[in-house]
Amino acid sequence: MFYRPEDGHGLPHNPFNALITPRPIGWISSRAEDGSNNLAPYSFFNGVAYTPPQVMFASTGSKDDQPGTKDSLANIEDTGVFCVNIVAYEMRDAMNASSAMLPKEVDEFSHAGLTAVECDTINCARIEGAPAALECKLTQIVTLPGVANRVAFGEVTGIHLRDDCLRDGIFDVTTFHPLARMGYRDYTVVRDVFSLARPDD
User: What is the DSSP string of 52-72?
Assistant: First the structure.
């Protein structure tokens, strides 16, 4: 099968998200200028540089009370900071609850039954008990073709690691099983890990 996206795929559901899988989930916390907290998962997320450490996430929609964008990007544009919380399998229901399209004044931490704790290097909340959290300072927001497609880049200014996820000096993902996004309504979880040495090592 071959199709041009501009012509449509002719399938019952768009296959695009199912092709780029699994995708890590950035559970993005932000804070509005009025001090209210926001939390939302984004699967167009990844690390993009080592030195200094940098991450990105893309927002691809808007909501009625945030014209042209969503709460996360609106808050980040106003404050210049955000936090990326890593999603453990055991937190899947809370993550899903926080994805609801709620009014901007609703605190998704409370809505999802999560506890917000303050970050150390930025004025933002993070999720208590998350396996890891990356405190970020916004570096730029890039507007992409299409309606409300925007990418936020951030420099990581502080990193929280849950102590029980460290084994022999290594951050061991098998201690918490990261959740990842697939296509449609599907997710997967990391339980099996193997290593490969690079040819030039």
Answer: TTEEEEEEE--BTTBTTS-HH
Angle made by CA atoms 179, 182, 184, in degrees to the nearest 5: 130
Q: Let me know the angle formed at the C-alpha of 154 by 63 and 172, rounded to the nearest 5 degrees.
A: 105
Does the predicted TM-score (pTM) go above 0.90?
yes
Q: What whole-number distance in Å separates Cα of residue 104 and Cα of residue 106?
A: 6
Model confidence pLDDT, tens digit, residues 55-74: 999 999 899 898 889 999 99
CA distances from 165 to 86, 131, 171, 178 (A): 12, 7, 6, 11
Contact between residue 87 and residue 96 where contact means Cβ atoms under 8 Å apart: no
Structure tokens at 62: 């808007």
* All domains of the chain in start order, with CATH: 24-182 (2.30.110.10)
- Supply 122's token pair: 């930025």
- Vertex 154, ends 150 and 157: CA angle to 5°? 165
Quote the DSSP letter at residue 76: H
* Structural tokens at position 94: 């809370």
Say how far residue 145 (Cα) sits from the centre of its chain.
21
Least confident stretch, 101-110, 114-123, 158-167? 101-110
